[in-house]
Amino acid sequence: MSSMGKTSVVSLCIYPLAYDYTGKPFIPTKPLILPKSLSSETSVSSLARGDFRNSVSTKASILSVNRTGKDCSFDCNVEIGKFCEVGNLQKAMELLCRSGNLGLVDVPTCCCILQLCADLKSLDNGRKVHSFLNTAGIEINGVLGSKLVFMYVSCGDLVEGRRVFDKIDSENVFLWNLLMNAYAKMGSFQDSVLLFYKMLETGVQANSYTFSCILKCFAALRSRREGEEVHAYLLKLGFGSCTTVVNSLITFYFKCRRIEHGQKLFDKMCERDIISWNSMMSGYVVNGLAQKGIKTFNEILRQGVGVDLSTMVVVLAACADVGSIWLSKAIHAYAMKAGFATKMDFDNTIMDVYSKCGDIGGAVCIFQNMVEKDIVSWTSMIAGYGREGMSNEAFELFRTLRKRGINPDVFVVTSILHACACSGSLENGLKVHEYIKENNMESNLVVSNALMNMYSKCGSMENAENVFSRMTTRDIVSWNTMIGGYSKNGLPSEALNMFIRMQLQFRPDDVSVTCILPACASLGALERGREVHCYLLKNELSSDLLVANALVDMYVKCGALATAKLLFDKIVLKDLFSWTIMIAGFGMHGFGREAIATFNEMRQAGIEPDETSFISILYACSHSGLFDEGWKFFNLMRNEFHIQPKLDHYACIVDLLARAGKLSMAYKFIKNMPLEPDATIWTVLLSGCRMHHDVRLAEKVADHVFELEPENTHHYLLLANIYAEAEKWNEVQQLRQRMIKRGLKKNVGCSWIGMKGEVYIFVSSRTNHPEARNITLLLKDLSKEMKEQGDASRKKYALINTEEKQKQFALCGHSEKLAMGFGILRSPPGKAIRVTKNLRVCGECHEMGKFMSKKFGKEILLRDSNRFHHFKDGTCSCRGYW
DNA sequence: ATAGGGTTAG
Fold it and tell me: Structural domain of residue A811, as residue ranges?
């Protein structure tokens, strides 16, 4: 019992009660309290069911004669009964009001009216009957009480129904079931569960309805243990072969991901009905086993079980998951023949299938031809547009449905938010948020989560933060959304902080891990990344493909290429992402040949490269200066895969040309591109000009860059460095003035190094760093030594003779040099030094890195904003291009 | 009189 955990407070009461129930014969319920005036001639069983409709006139006649001996009262109860029988509530109420005060209306008659109120869902009249009973001082209990509760629940006033229920002694299982179901229907599973336990404590015998309901609740709450206890309990009570109950059990186990349990139960059933089959099918589908679901459907057809609407809906959902449009069409045709195609639910499903299979036109066609649409139809269509990135169409639909007077529910709102998120439409997203605020829907957890997701996808973390801070309850999804948002929006430190804060409340799950890993990756925080990896292993979190890919990516970006490769090799079923990550990884680290080999392996594995994987391979070729290979892939992409190159692909080719020193060719290439060049592509050429010291072309290129992005300080800095390296200090000065005029400030160069769980940060031209003196001394000595042994290019940096300020403006301020120096002083022997820098590495520091690696026999991994530099034995993996 | 399977989002 001790293993029951926190939930044992409630779950403990099952076993003792189960024992009681099985240990003793059936516990008789208390005798029914019948209205005193009822004669024995009314059948008790019909009273127990509260069914007075058939016998009301005879009952009333005997009663009233007994009570008054006069004809007038006789008429009143009989008359009301007659009105009730024909469903004329209005007249029945009128009579009740008139004769009620005289004390002439009896209890069975009241029950009759209440039943009618329930049937007609007339809460107002039901309330009137209730207040009549109160004024008349009639005791509300037994059948009357039950009827009253039934009326309230039927009319949707669960609160009042519960109040009455609590006041009466109810041994009526039906009533308990009714309330439990009502709670479950509105999603208050917890209330339903509490009522169930209370019912057991009260000593009311559960029946098959009870078990169906409670299993549904436990499935929804994912309370596997409690559900299993109920399973044991119901077996003891002998419900083990009751079809409806076993059906519920099957669904329960599938929802709790206990697929084998569900299968076993199904296999052992002696009487399977269509619901059993449907449950199996949907069980497979919810567990992502759509293929098995379809197989089950085949079995249903083969065995001639017969299908119903649900069968069709489920098998179509399976088709949507599989994404097979031809199978969907075949089943669509089958369903039309079977006569299901006129049902709205069916249309909703088939519409969803078409849209999920990528046939949005087909979906629109069905939607527009639907005679009757419900809120699900609208939601599906909005979601369909969302998947296609058509957020304007989705938003238009959202507007239309409101115009039609339909009140958007949580599904509609989250779908439209998702559509805005997918297309990054902040404008529409904000409008939806307005609607949400006006309708007080922000308090809904799922809505708030969807809002944060929308804002984070639209790049507005401030808005996401606002939503997050207003939330009163947050689930793990809320935290994961924020963490992932920070990660993806270039705020890795915030992501890490969030991850730490989260752990005060929640244990990170596999999603949290996939969300935080990119943050570790972008910070180059290897230690943190490793911690997360350890956490993953220790807690046996599912390391599905997503997690595995994120891990490989993290290790790649943190400079642990060997580890990354090891993990990559362990992935059994690699997807396109896995391959692309690894190819890009090799490229980033300057291993172009390995990148090419990996690309070829991927093709051999039968995975088709897409746009992105071509960017990876082209990038890898250009970084490693593999000119011919790069062109080969570029042509392969265009001619064999028929992928139109995008700007990113062109940028790689420009880089390839520029590195090869074919600068004017690169210039012409840009001019002749079928796409309008953006700032990035010009910057690539500008970097090429820097490598090859072509100041004149650089100026021409820079004009384009500044025209497109006049506010980006990186460009000023790059040109300033080109000038500085050509010792054109006047031009450096002029550039600086231009920046000041525009009110731009240079981004502070900043490098960091992790050591023994600490992160040491070095900021350019600041001297308040750890071991400042020792580092300065070391660097001074090294510079001197470099100068003495130096060749012309090294002298260039060492001999710069101008004001220190300008030099620092032009160059990076050497934060990476400080960090590397710190690494030399502090890092344990034999261990590589890993430094990360926020900007691109400067030439002087690059030389210093090479020099250091040779002098101290140390491997240094420097990650700048572009790629890795592996310094080893005086050389760099970037082969001199950076 | 109450139920068990199905569609929409994240």
Answer: 750-876
